[in-house]
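Interim report to the steering committee. The following record documents the input for Riboflavin biosynthesis protein RibD (324 residues).
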Amino acid sequence: MQTPPTDAHWLDAAARLAARGRPLSCPNPAVGCLIVNDGMVVGRGWTAEGGRPHAEAVALAQAGDRAHGATAYVTLEPCAHKSERGPACADLLAGSGLARVVIGVGDPDPRTAGGGIARLKEAGIEAVLLPSRASHDSLAGYLMRAAEGRPFVTLKVALSLDGCIAAADGESQWITGEEARAHVHSRRAKQDAILVGGGTWRADRPRLDVRLPGLEGRTLRRVVLTRGVPLEGATIINRPAQIAGLEGVQYLYVEGGAQTAASFLAEDLVDRLEIYRAPIVIGGGRPSIGDIAIGSLADAHGRWEETEHRRLGSDQFTAYRRTR
C-alpha cells in the first residue's frame, strides 16, 4: 500500500513549482502554491512575470469551489500588506473556505512578518509554519537580500581532472562538452545578473547571454569586477562586497576567472558552488581558483555540503551549499 504524501512532500512539490517563476517574478520572490483536496491537486500557481498575480491568487482561481475544505501549501508566508497592484494573499486565502494553510518559510518583510499567519488564524483557518529546506532554497535570493542585504551568489567553475580552467596559454574553449555547456545556459536563465572579472572580459569579450531554444530573449544584467574604466554594456564593481548595491538583483551568477572566484571565496560571499569537471588532464595549465587565504586544511573542512550530482555527457556536475 502506497504511503500518502505528507505536508513536507507537498511543500517540496510547491517549491519545485516556484522554480517556474524565477527570475521573471523579480522584484517579487518566486513563490509556489498548491491546493490539495482529498489527496488531489485542485489548484496550483507560481508568481507571474513582473510579480503579479501572486501564486496564491493563481492557485485559488484554478481551484474555484474545490478550495472549500482543502489545504493550501505555500512556500512563503502569504502577504498581509495592501498593495495598489492587487489584494493581500492572506485576505484571499482567508475568504476561500480553506481548512488549512501550510507554509514553508515565514516572510521576513516587516509589512507581513507573522501578519499573514495571524490573518489566517483570525479567519478560523489552521495555519501551520512547517520549516522546509526546499522552500527556503527556492527563495534563497529573496531571503539573502532580506538577511544580508546582498544577492544569493552562485560560483560556477568548469575544470579538468587536475583542477585547471585553461591551458598554460589561456586557451579554455572548450573544457567541457555540449551537454555541460547547455546546462550552464539553463543555470544562467535562472539568474538576474552574471559577473566576470576584468581579465576575462578583456580577453574573451564573453556574450554572457542565454543560448537555449526558446530562451534566447532572456537577458541578464552583466557585471564586471575590475578596477578599470567604465565599460559599455556592463556594470562595474571594484570589490566583491559592492554586489550589495546591485539594485533589483536577487540571484548573481559568477563565472570567472580564477582571481575573481578567489576574491568571492576569500570574502565568504559564495552561497552555492557549481563545478563542471571534464575527463581531461591538462598538466601545467591555469589553476581554477587563486589563493583564498585559508590558513590550514582544518580551516577548509566543514564549509561545503554536496546538494546535487549528475552526469552531463562525459562530464560530471556537482553542486555544493555553503554551510554557515
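The radius of gyration is 22 Å. The committee is asked to note this result when reviewing the revised timeline.
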